[in-house]
Specification:
Blueprint: H1 12-22, E1 31-32, H2 35-41, E2 44-49, H3 59-68, H4 72-77, E3 79-82, H5 86-98, E4 102-107, H6 112-120, E5 124-128, H7 135-146, E6 149-150, H8 157-174, E7 179-183, H9 188-200, E8 205-211, H10 216-223, H11 246-255, E9 258-262, H12 264-278, H13 288-295, E10 304-309, H14 316-323
Parallel strand pairs: 2-10, 3-4, 3-6, 4-5, 7-8, 7-10, 8-9
Antiparallel strand pairs: 1-2
Helix pairs in contact: 1-3, 1-8, 3-5, 3-8, 5-6, 8-9, 9-11, 12-13
This protein binds pyridoxal-5'-phosphate.
The site of pyridoxal-5'-phosphate (PLP) has 23 residues, from α9.
Length: 327
């Protein structure tokens, strides 16, 4: 009988090391306030705006931190990633900055804007058929054949440590928080944020937020074992993962207060608030955290509440259709 060794979990020291590596490469994104939100809640809200991060989402942090740790041999051969979303662009941009080749495995029917953005950052795109091919198998085969290093979007210690730098910057800028709300797909951002919160603001609560249709993380959190679901139908395309990663789940179980869910209608309301009141474009997944705070407003009175806005990459036609209620 073989007993699988549990993977090493990243620590807060790894988040601090990631912050040093990202210095001069990632933006220290702004923390925005809204008098309207504060009045609505009777609380102080601090929005960490990763929609203003390079390539438009926090994913640059984890990708750059992981790639910056490659050995010379790994750099020469390059990186491979599979993603239809922000991780693709994050890895392509980080590789370009670090001067290494990047191969990105993307679905044939990925939005042309995302394909173009990935190629624009110098990524070599390999297309696959979403309905016929196994993208992980394609990624693994490319990795083996060409000696490439595969960087997954969330189930990786260096990726998690990098994602944790957003919450670290937030707390170091505004001081300790009573609660922090974080969007969840595979759990990389939440796990990294929880490491930062436990070290810098240990009394504060940490909530992960998922779309209602894809509450695998909530089920896992409550049952104590990873739960796998079918690809959920939701407008939050960055959270259409089928299960939490193994490493994120171990940290989430230990350090997170609870997992919450919100509906697509609540996400649209959040996007509208950001557009009308704060004059910014946030993608549907990026509104998860704020949507959850609004649903538990009464519990947050007089508290200092952090909200991570995870990204702003949304096609303008889709954005307009969503905020005008045309879908
Ligand atoms: C990837 C992504 C998420 C989810 O992050 P995980 O680390 O997979 O939980 C949330 N929002 C945006 C904009 C993303 O790109």
């Amino acid at each position: 009988m073989t007993i699988a060794t549990p993977p090493a979990l990243p620590t807060f020291d790894d988040v601090l090391a990631a912050e040093r590596r990202l210095d001069g490469h990632a933006h220290c994104t702004p923390v925005l306030r809204s008098r309207t939100a504060d009045a609505e809640f009777g609380a102080e809200l601090f929005f960490k705006c990763e929609n203003f991060q390079r390539m438009g989402a926090f994913k640059f942090r984890g990708a750059f931190n992981a790639l910056a740790r490659f050995s010379d041999a790994q750099r020469r051969a390059g990186v491979v990633a599979f993603s239809s979303g922000n991780h693709a662009q994050a890895v392509a941009l980080a590789a370009q900055i670090l001067g290494m080749p990047a191969t990105i495995v993307m679905p044939q029917d990925a939005p042309t804007a995302k394909l173009a953005a990935t190629r624009g950052y110098g990524g070599q795109v390999v297309l696959y058929d979403r309905y016929r091919d196994d993208r992980e198998a394609i990624g693994r085969e490319l990795a083996e054949r060409h000696g490439l290093t595969l960087i997954p979007p969330y189930d990786h210690a260096d990726v998690i440590a990098g994602q944790g730098t957003a919450a670290l910057e937030l707390i170091d800028e505004v001081g300790p928080l009573d609660a922090l709300f974080v969007c969840v797909g595979g759990g990389g951002l939440l796990a990294g944020s929880a490491l930062a919160m436990r070290a810098r603001s240990p009394q504060g609560k940490v909530y992960g937020v998922e779309p209602e249709a894809g509450n695998d993380g909530q089920q896992a959190f409550r049952s104590g074992a990873i739960v796998r679901i079918d690809t959920p139908k939701t407008i939050a395309d960055g959270a259409q993962t089928q299960q939490l990663g193994v490493i994120p789940f171990a940290i989430i179980r230990r350090d997170v207060t609870d997992m919450l869910t919100v509906s697509d209608a609540q996400l649209v309301d959040a996007m509208r608030f950001f557009a009308e009141r704060m004059k910014m474009v946030v993608e549907p997944t990026g509104g998860l955290g704020f949507a959850a705070t609004r649903a538990m407003k009464a519990d947050l009175r007089r508290q200092r509440v952090g909200v991570i806005i995870s990204g702003g990459n949304v096609d303008m036609a889709r954005f307009c259709a969503l905020v005008t209620g045309d879908v």
